[in-house]
């Protein structure tokens, strides 16, 4: 027994072919507009042609392709399914005894291929590509890297609170440090230093320091000009830019979120840790969005309508834009603390799942 019939292969070929064609068309237009917008920056900053092509645009394309994958899936399904319906091909399939449920098999296989490809791209391929692209942007377009932080406060170990008034990553120097160690609610020791210097791999050097140790009513004070110490913190833990989560693979992103939560950090350098959580959950939610939007697109455009293909494409584009806007709005609720990140990311999928179920029940059989 064949797993895929000739009809299945035909629909899969049409689906993936239209998906790839829509990507090429829209991304090509985006690249042209981006070149037009950034050409002055490239010329004024003497960006090499090789770097423009390979460091920026070769990494620009997969990033934006994956970012708008849901839109491309919707466009592809609406376009080629409307064409099949307009040519009465779907009517012929259904009149020969094929159910709409059976018709959806090649659609789901195609959506599965896109979903798996999108997850692999977003989790393991795009993050290192983004690192190269963002380095190029920082050097030749606009530098958004973070090299300075102030009023840093975090838990570096159980009951150990670190505070640094300011830190400059270019010199790797921090000023006015305090390190408080608690047992329960009781302060056991306090270390202060006028300057702190980061060396390598959690190794720090403290200058002009004093240590106060509390033993009941007694107090011991130790002072010195220099001391080497190990702290469970590195500059990247508090020097965070809005682009950092885009450069992390999914396992690295998960580890980073857990490490920051252990340190008691909710906001670092003006960037909320919630944004990292949103990105993490989005990478999984996008897998299911491919299936949901495929069902909506196929159910919506399988029926031959008087308005023709144009009406279906218009409705499809309206729904896809609504989905993307819904994602943006719900994410903003998570950033503001109104909603948990996981729920905010999955709400659009949950709502559109009901829309998909309704449209599927109304699809022609």
From TrEMBL:
<dbReference type="GO" id="GO:0015920">
    <property type="term" value="P:lipopolysaccharide transport"/>
</dbReference>
<keyword id="KW-0472">Membrane</keyword>
<dbReference type="InterPro" id="IPR005495">
    <property type="entry name" value="LptG/LptF_permease"/>
</dbReference>
<feature type="transmembrane region" description="Helical">
    <location>
        <begin position="284"/>
        <end position="302"/>
    </location>
</feature>
<protein>
    <recommendedName>
        <fullName>YjgP/YjgQ family permease</fullName>
    </recommendedName>
</protein>
<feature type="transmembrane region" description="Helical">
    <location>
        <begin position="63"/>
        <end position="85"/>
    </location>
</feature>
<keyword id="KW-1003">Cell membrane</keyword>
<keyword id="KW-1133">Transmembrane helix</keyword>
<feature type="transmembrane region" description="Helical">
    <location>
        <begin position="12"/>
        <end position="33"/>
    </location>
</feature>
<keyword id="KW-0812">Transmembrane</keyword>
<dbReference type="GO" id="GO:0043190">
    <property type="term" value="C:ATP-binding cassette (ABC) transporter complex"/>
</dbReference>
<feature type="transmembrane region" description="Helical">
    <location>
        <begin position="106"/>
        <end position="126"/>
    </location>
</feature>
<feature type="transmembrane region" description="Helical">
    <location>
        <begin position="309"/>
        <end position="329"/>
    </location>
</feature>
<dbReference type="Pfam" id="PF03739">
    <property type="entry name" value="LptF_LptG"/>
</dbReference>
<feature type="transmembrane region" description="Helical">
    <location>
        <begin position="341"/>
        <end position="360"/>
    </location>
</feature>
């Amino acid at each position: 027994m064949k797993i895929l019939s000739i009809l299945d292969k035909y629909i899969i070929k049409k689906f993936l072919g239209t998906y790839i064609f829509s990507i090429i068309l829209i991304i090509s237009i985006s690249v042209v507009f981006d070149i037009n917008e950034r050409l002055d920056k490239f010329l004024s900053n003497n960006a090499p042609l090789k770097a423009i092509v390979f460091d920026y645009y070769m990494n620009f394309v997969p990033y934006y392709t994956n970012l708008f994958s849901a839109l491309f899936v919707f466009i592809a399904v609406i376009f080629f399914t409307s064409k099949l319906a307009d040519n009465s091909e779907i009517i012929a399939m259904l009149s020969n005894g094929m159910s709409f449920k059976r018709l959806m098999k090649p659609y789901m296989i195609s959506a599965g291929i896109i979903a798996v490809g999108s997850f692999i791209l977003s989790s393991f391929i795009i993050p290192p590509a983004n690192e190269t692209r963002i380095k190029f942007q920082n050097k030749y377009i606009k530098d958004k890297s973070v090299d300075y932080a102030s009023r840093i406060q975090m838990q570096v170990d159980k009951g150990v609170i670190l505070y640094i008034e300011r830190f400059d990553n270019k010199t790797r120097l921090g000023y006015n440090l305090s390190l408080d160690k608690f047992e329960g609610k009781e302060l056991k020791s306090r270390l202060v230093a006028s300057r702190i210097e980061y060396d390598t791999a959690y190794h720090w050097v403290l200058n002009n320091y004093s240590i106060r140790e509390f033993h009941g009513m007694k107090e011991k004070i130790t002072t010195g000009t220099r001391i080497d110490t190990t702290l469970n913190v590195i500059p990247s833990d508090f020097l965070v830019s809005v682009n950092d989560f885009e450069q992390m693979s999914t396992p690295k992103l998960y580890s980073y979120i857990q490490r920051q939560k252990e340190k008691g950090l909710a906001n670092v350098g003006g960037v909320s840790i919630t944004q990292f959580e949103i990105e993490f959950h989005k990478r999984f939610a996008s897998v299911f969005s491919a299936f949901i939007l495929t069902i909506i697109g196929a159910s919506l455009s399988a029926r031959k309508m008087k308005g023709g293909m144009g009406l279906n494409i218009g409705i499809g584009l309206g729904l896809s834009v609504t989905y993307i806007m819904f994602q943006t709005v719900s994410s903003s609720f998570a950033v503001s603390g109104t909603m948990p990140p996981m729920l905010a990311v999955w709400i659009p999928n949950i709502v559109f799942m009901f829309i998909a179920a309704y449209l599927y029940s109304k699809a022609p059989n």
